[in-house]
Amino acid sequence: MEMEGNSLPSSSCPDGRKRRVCYYYDPGIANVDYGAHHVMVPRRVAMTHGLVTSYKLLPDMELLRTRPATEDELAGILTDDYRRLLRDLTPGTYRADTARRHHIGALSGDKRNDNPVIDGLWDYCARYAGGSLAAARALGSGKSDIAINWSGGMHHACSGEASGFCYVNDIVLAIRELLAAFPRVLYVDIDVHHGDGVEKYFAADGRVMTASFHQYGRGGKGGDTFFFPGTGSAEDVGEGAGKYRTLNVPMKAGMDDAGYRELFVPIMREVMGVFRPDAIVLQCGADSLSGDKLGEFNLSVRGHAECVRYLRSFNVPLLLLGGGGYTINHVASCWCYETAVAVGKEKEIPDDIPHHGYEHYYKDQGYKLHYGVTKVGRNAASTKEHMDNIRNEALKNVQNLHELLKHGVGPSVQFKDIDDQELYKQRPQTSGPKKKRGRDGEDPMDRLHRLCGEADVRNFFARVGEENIRGTASSPGRETKIYEEQRRRASTAAVHRFCH
Fold it and tell me: Is 496 a residue of the active site?
């Protein structure tokens, strides 16, 4: 007997099926403070939850109640020395010579420190990673069709070091869990920054395809620095058994809704038809929105959510994760709206933000869920020729994967040409906050709101990207060795799971 879903049918999806959606929220994450000069404010997830609650979306979802990830679970994706460092590190036990080797710095006024030592660091990582792990298990068990963890999506973290505000890569943890239930997993990243950590981990794994849509090249004030992390060229296509399963779509600053859709839809349609994933992980980094403090794209909330809507329409198990996003009111608006898309209620929630305790943060956007997008420099850098080149190069790489699979190179896939009706074919369903004050006495979210115009954060964090490139060049092969060892561990663990 086929089970009915918890969520309502969505008119935006051609199959019109109900979706069983599960949702993870941990209020403990909201109390984490990255420091006085940092743009990362985890309480943006509490703001999102406040909107989700006030728009009455919670009854349409199953709430995931889970424990934090265990040390043994995190050991599967972390080197031993880095795991021990994260577990034991506090501002009081910080030692520069040890922590800096793993790209973690002291919590201070040093504006060049993007991965600070923060109170409760291990607990924080375990909580957001535990949410992604539980969400992946909900999909793998068949109990849910869509799973959401807005506190996850830390796509820059590596096996042995922190990067880009990310300490533990919960996405890698979730994909590994999904692979225990699904033969092929597709990872899609719409953060303004390249999903480098996830790509590196699965670069040689034929069961996983990664597709990252990101800003690339020179960026920042004056356009004279590399946009973080400086990776994600279209020429990077994977290696070994994973060749052509790495897909990068590098874009210039100013990308707007129309331009993004012009690339995303045809490229992802071909990816879905060729790779035929059994599950999808979508990292919904909100720093690709217009007006973000770090990103330089011009996407609206609706334009960003169009990616969620499009991938939802394929009726494949879907995991939605957070990621970047540093204009916190925009982030909360976006992730709330995308929650509504997941449950099929995006046309039912009003634009006027309900009273719920956080509404004062939305004053600058007129207390509306959908704020105005700046028209200055909208996609001006991307000519028609440039857009055609980006799309054609991506489609060429997908075609190369097509040829590999067609001739039996890679994971076992029965290949045949498909049409739209088959892509949208229905799949059978399986039954089955209190504010914390920072060190200076000021709430971290209030502090960031106040300081939004006082620092050139875009230029500062763009410089981090250039430093990252120089650091990688000075130590060639280091990351490759780390991830080769990690892939070996992953393969061993997967064999153990399937044999037992």
Answer: no
